[in-house]
Design a protein that fits this description.
- The chain is α+β, with helices and mostly antiparallel strands.
- It has one domain.
- The longest helix has 17 residues.
- Strand 1 and strand 2 form a beta hairpin.
- The protein has a 4-stranded antiparallel beta sheet, with helices on one face.
- The relative contact order is 0.23.
- The chain has 4 helices and 4 strands, in the order H-H-E-E-H-H-E-E.
Length: about 100
Amino acid sequence: MIVDIITREFETNLPAFNSHDEAYDYFEERFSQFRFAGSVVIDGQFCKFYDVVYDSDLYLRFLESKVSALMDGSRLVEPTSDYLDCYQRVEIFEDGNVHIVF
């Protein structure tokens, strides 16, 4: 089942996951463009970031602007409203806890 966009209702109805892999599989099955975006340790637990991409072309331009800023040594700028609609961030912890950024 492919889902078009993540809503608060979708988040409310998420099942309880027992592991990162279980949550990852759930999202990957439902979103055709579910891309790894990084990871960090929070409170001693790995958290992996994924982007659900809604507009591939705009998302690519967003990533290119981030790379360009890194290469120039420029300060990274937060995504503008132009870019915010092209993806949605999903954070999955190793214990299966999921946080969706709205």
